[in-house]
Write a structure and sequence with these properties.
Radius of gyration of chain A: 35 Å
Strand order of the largest sheet of chain B: 2-3-4-8
Shape of chain A: elongated
Helix content of chain A: 55-70%
Shape of chain B: elongated
Strand content of chain B: 15-25%
Helix content of chain B: 25-40%
Oligomer: heterodimer
Number of strands of chain A: 0
Number of strands of chain B: 10
Largest interface: A-B, 77 and 80 residues
Order of helices and strands of chain B: HHHHEEEEEEEEEE
Strand content of chain A: under 5%
Distance between the termini of chain A: 74 Å
Structural class of chain A: mainly alpha
Structural class of chain B: alpha+beta
Chain lengths: 621, 258
Amino acid sequence: MINLLKELWREWMQSPDRNRPPDDQTRSGHKSSRMTGISHFLTYWLPTHNHWGFAWISSIAGCLCLLAATGFGLWFFYSPSATSAWESVYFIENHVGMGHWIRGVHYLTADVLILMLVGYLVYQIATKSYLRNGGLWFFLTLGLLGCVMFNSLNGLLLPWDQQGYWSTRIRMDITSSLPVLGPYLAKILAGSDPMGHLSLTRSSVFHMGLIPPALVAIFCGLAGLHAVNRSSAQQKQSTSPGQPVSATLSSLIFKTGIFWFGTLLAIALMGVFHMGFGGEDQWGAPHLKAPADPSSDYPIARPEWYFLWLFQMLKFFPGESMVIGTAFIPGLLTAFIVFMPLTGRSRWGHRINGVLGLLVMSVIGALSAKAFLTDLWDEKYRIDRDRAMALGKRAVVLSGNGIPVQGALALLKQDPWSQGPELFAKHCASCHRHQGHDGLNNIPSEDPSAPDLFHFASIGWLTGLLTPDQIDSPAYFGGTAFKNGKMSKFVHEELINLGPEKQLALKELIQALSAQAALPYQPNISLHSSDPEMAASIQRGQDHLVDTFGCVDCHVFQLPHEDATAVDLTGYGSRDWLIQFISNPGHPKFYGSKNDRMPAFLEEKSLTIDQIQLVVDWLRN
Amino acid sequence: MRVTAGPRNNCYPGSTRMEVCGSGMANGSWNDLAWKESDPFQKYAIDVMVGMSTNIEAMGQHKENTSGDHSPTTRRNFAGVALLLGSTILGGMGVLASFVVSLFHPLGLRKLSDTSSTGALNEPFLFITTLDLIPGDGSAAMFPVISDSKDAWTRHPSRSIGNIFLRKSPPSTEVPKVLAWNARCPHAGCTISIRKQEKDFFCFCHESRFSGDGSLPDGKSHSPRAMDSLEVEIRNQFEVWVQFQQFQVGTKDKKPVA
């Protein structure tokens, strides 16, 4: 056995046929030539001339292998359906050993491969080698690029997060607006309208089933062409045996080594780039955004970077001329590239190809840069992006305890932290503010017409309310009818120039009132405080509320009070109190007939009880 | 077993100069034959291959001989070939058909009968909200469209399937007319936002602008048509029902998606 291996090894190293083209061997016909197959196989791939083209193609092959290896790794865990795709990718990222790394390499390698294929096409044009084999070599490379880009687009949908969903949906909408075949093409690509389970099953078929064999086939085509080129080169050589081929193995290894190292470096740097400009906090594929939600708006939907120029170009074609940007120009560009090997045959044709190619590249570069920088400098875009990122991370945190069968979106929909601000922005922020903004960090252009509810009923909030120069500010009653009401009058007249004793009493009153709210972030200020001193202080504060300051003249506090005209202070700011208040502020327990403009959200069915609870839980935490 | 070792034609282990290596092939390869034939394993492998090729040649000869020969063997062969060919074609067609049918399934060869293009189940008009929840000052507000919906095999009970804008116009009339638009931008399908300050609609994707009444303010808007208005019905005096539809984006004509 060992002997046999030794034989084989010698056979490899000493092959007399190392540089012999395959055609010659079959022609010579003797059976022994089969034995040299292995050595032949090893050297067969090497070029007869010493050029960088081989380094390109070997690095491209390397990237494809990386993609295949990591892709199979991901495939073991991926589950294509609208209620399990995000969830399975979440699982890969957080619970599969090296999962984040595998997905990161898969994602970033695809990006680098696209860059590299574009680079290889440019290289072919620059060295005039795009004319080789009647342009077939160039076409095959172009086909490779097309397949890789198509597969990358398919792959982006697979995690079924907001980014993948919205960029795909808009791309499908644009596709469907293309003339003649557009609507049919969009339907075939999207799988179903509206997109759902079937879009994912379809995209996985394209991504994992149909395109990879196509890539292999194209690569085999390139290998076949290589064989043809090789044998014709050697025939030429054999007619002039004195002339040696310049390729040496060591120089080839050096060149491919440089390239392969550069490729790996590019993959690493691509991840760093995402960290620098994409707001990512770790190396790898961009962080999963929240699970796809067809009913949400996702204002930061952008295409992938290689289509960013198309996105930017659309802004130049208003109205019906849109078709110029979506169909005409891309079509023209494709035609130009496809016909390059034909037009390049003449000397002038080649020059025009070069100049036009450069021009197109710089226009595409400029458009992409414009789109990229516009977003980078746009405050609104940054706020929205940070929000999308935060929601994605929140979804991951929530999923930590296990995801219900309805999927992670249902989990997110029941989460006060993520839904509260959305609901607040939609339903409350037209009057109220939250720390000066609308809950989502946007600052509305109009002045608030109702109090700022950040830390509502906390000691800080109440202290501000009961300060004469603050109660009429926009953060409290400034924008409301209560500005001229009894409460404001009381604060202005009774709570001014207090002596030290009364100041202390007011402080204790505020503490006692805030204790009614039982806010989670004020754990010490509680009616059930274990600290006897605090309990006594709160008790004193309640007495002040009733006696010292006479709040119960208007308000209800613990005891029924038939002539009460102001809101009930029993349980003020607590969860139940807030839910009831938002449900119907005009209830006699609250503002009654004095209610300013606040709608009864539950009574009028503009919010469900679940939604009110979400807002309340968010406000109180 | 004889083993050729050491330098031969400069093609020794570690040689990287290919051209030198290759130049001696014509002499070298013949000399190697002798020991290879004597290797029993090798011999066996070659025998198998030769045997196979002989069989194939024999089959070919049979075929050539069929003309005019009606012996039972050839007839059986012919039937076999016909069967093989026929079943291959049939099978191939089956393979192709199943692929084609699956690929083109979304074109509606077999439609999910109970869902519309919006994914909504049930009737075309959907309850959205009540009249008093639409701002009274004549500004627009966004409302989710809630409906039972179906995604292939999954049924989603009352889920938001899209967003619309509602606006009362003109304000302060006894029975105000309600205007409704789909919030999906007719340009490229992003979601339109309300700009309160400018009192208009704006799509942040490609910066498409629409007037407060949903129309195109000037020829410079990116959208090829005005915002897609929707049919509104007021039922029971205060319920707002809207016929929620999706329309083909990117075209001048407002064409409902089937």
